[in-house]
Amino acid sequence: MDQLQSQLRGKIGGKKYLLVLDDIWNEEWEEWVSLKELLVGGAKGSRIIVTTRSLRVAKITSKCQPYVLKGLSDDDAWSLFKEIAFEQRSINPTFVKIGKQILERCGGVPLVIRTIAGALSFKETEKEWSSFKDNELARISQNEGKILATLKLSYDHLPSHLKHCFAYCRLYPKDHKIHVQTLVQFWIAQGFVKQLNPSQSLEEIGFVYFKDLNERGFFQEVGERYSWEGLTCKMHDLMHDLAESVAGTESSIVDSNEIASKVGEKCRHISIDPSLIVLFKGKKLRTMLHFPNYERNQNMNDEIWDFIISNYRCLRVLELNGLDFKMIPRSICKLKHLRYLDLSGNLILRSSQRAFARYKICKL
């Protein structure tokens, strides 16, 4: 920490700087004071901008009046709504009237407008639009605290197979760059993708699922090329909150001993540091993901391997990339339901271990 503080002072000492701290949630006043003490060495005119959805954070971090962002103007809100909701239909005066009434409930929030408009773009009759306005939307208040409930309306109108696929995305950390091809392979491994048309592969059908969710506004920052390989995307923080809400107790991100010990036995899908898996109580895991976090000790010893193989025979997805282990126990073949195995990034993994590729679909 002393070295980091010294490096920071060296970077800003005597220099005029602009520092943006985006999406801050820490409400501890003492920690903010400690941070400010490290930032006082800049030249006159230096500025710090903090963005947050917490009014308490805004008050703690600012000596001036916080600037509260307002929603879009009526004209801009309608322009965005119209572009999405009427993309594939002629602009009927009756649809326009209903659409503007629905838009009043969106509070000018772009994400809400995009999501609601995306849901309506798949409804083809005036009756469906009126039903959406009079029934589902009528139960939602306009105040900011109901944004998540408004977004959930679009989730509620998804086909069941897309609901499973969206909720599964809760396993990714916030602001994580999602590789679409890998995400689709996860969906396939879990049995979410149904091959109704024999002329299409499961991968092609899964990619259609992704495009359907994207067109409804559930993803953002989708790569410019709409091709299969190399395509990435992200989820808005509020969409991630929605995925967490609808996933409930079946999915969890486990990044501390406390969370690991609290996750219930009904949990089926987890993102976890392998060293914490021994604290997990459930026995019916279907997904175990690992997103490298270099703040923790990355290791994978025989004891952890044995624990996973002995306790989680229902695993369908096992991703253990970026860990430091040399050998894979032959007992891994007892995981008879395993459909996706990722061991990439383990640079010292012995080449002889690659023989496991003939037992499972592997990524090495």
Automatic annotation (TrEMBL):
InterPro entries: Disease_R_plants, LRR_dom_sf, NB-ARC, P-loop_NTPase, WH-like_DNA-bd_sf, WHD_DRP. Residues 4-89 form the NB-ARC domain. Keywords: Plant defense, Repeat. Residues 171-243 form the Disease resistance protein winged helix domain. This is Disease resistance protein RGA3. The gene is LOC121223534.
